[in-house]
């Protein structure tokens, strides 16, 4: 009798509704936590309470005998520059354009719209926040020229937005759970590597990077949650968005 109940259409609809609500509530809770973390970091940064932490972390990447020089051999410097380029506006833009063209050719318009909305919206948000906080860059000799304010880190935020959104989209096509975890894991790893490269290069404070990670992950999750809600309400086809 229990098996018959579990297999009934009414039970399946109820189970789907409860699972969907739980996922939605979990997403809202995580987004709220990430935004609160960003606001806390921003508040402490403005009041100067992050200064000791920021300086201590930055000095880990500096030669104690000459604080103007980063640690490690020349080949490591070049490798870090290559990694940080993964979070540059130009390279992320090329990745997004290429992925969107593929999705459009595959008639996955909803996925393409999700990626574009997430990345463009994240870029606008990052730019406005940089203009609003207008934090100067670290007073260190850096490995590249910078032309924008320091807080939050645009590389950290936009790499989180782009890679996490693409990870969510690509995980939909993974045939097994381990492959889904691998896809999301690689997206997280790339995001972390880009953020750490900014610290090594001395172009951002650690609080800039932490704030960028928090807000970027929150924005990517917001876009995915809205997409999930539109799927549930029937605004878009159920098979048009990642699960």
Written account of the structure:
The protein is mostly helical. The protein contains nine helices and two strands. It has helices at 2-6, 9-46, 51-59, 74-84, 89-105, 109-133, 154-171, 177-201, 206-233; strands spanning 62-63, 66-70. It has a two-stranded antiparallel ribbon. A hairpin with a 2-residue loop joins strand 1 (62-63) and strand 2 (66-70). Helix 6 (109-133) packs antiparallel against helix 9 (206-233). The two termini are 31 Å apart. Mean pLDDT is 82; it is low at 14-19 and 236-243.
Percent range for β-strand residues: under 5%
Largest sheet, in brief, is:
2 strands, antiparallel
Sum up the overall morphology in one term: globular
Structural class designation: mainly alpha
Order of strands side by side in the largest beta sheet?
1-2
Helical element count? 9
Task: Tell me how many strands there are.
Answer: 2
Question: Residue ranges: pLDDT <50 for 5 or more in a row?
Answer: 14-19, 236-243
Q: What fraction, in percent, of the residue positions are helical? A: over 70%
Query: Mean pLDDT across all residues, rounded?
Result: 82
Radius of gyration: 21 Å
**Terminal Cα span:** 31 Å
The string of secondary-structure elements, in order, is HHHEEHHHHHH
């Amino acid at each position: 009798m229990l098996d018959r109940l579990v297999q009934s259409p009414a039970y399946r609809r109820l189970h789907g509704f409860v699972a969907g609500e739980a996922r939605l509530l979990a997403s809202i809770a995580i987004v709220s936590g990430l935004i609160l973390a960003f606001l806390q970091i921003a508040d402490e940064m403005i009041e100067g309470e992050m200064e000791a932490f920021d300086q201590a972390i930055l000095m880990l990447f500096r030669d104690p005998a000459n604080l103007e020089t980063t640690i490690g051999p020349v080949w490591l410097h070049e490798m870090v520059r290559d990694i940080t380029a993964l979070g540059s506006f130009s390279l992320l833009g090329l990745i997004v354009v290429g992925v969107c063209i593929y999705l459009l050719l595959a008639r996955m318009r909803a996925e393409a719209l999700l990626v574009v909305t997430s990345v463009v919206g994240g870029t606008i948000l990052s730019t406005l926040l940089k203009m609003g906080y207008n934090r100067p860059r670290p007073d260190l000799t850096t490995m590249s020229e910078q032309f924008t304010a320091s807080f939050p880190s645009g590389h950290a935020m936009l790499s989180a937005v782009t890679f996490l959104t693409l990870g969510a989209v690509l995980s939909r096509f993974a045939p097994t759970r381990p492959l889904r975890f691998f896809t999301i894991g690689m997206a997280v790893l790339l995001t972390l590597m880009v953020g750490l490269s900014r610290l090594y290069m001395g172009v951002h404070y650690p609080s800039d990077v932490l704030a960028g990670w928090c807000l970027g992950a929150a924005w990517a999750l917001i876009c995915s949650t809205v997409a999930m809600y539109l799927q549930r309400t029937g605004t878009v086809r159920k098979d048009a968005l990642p699960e």
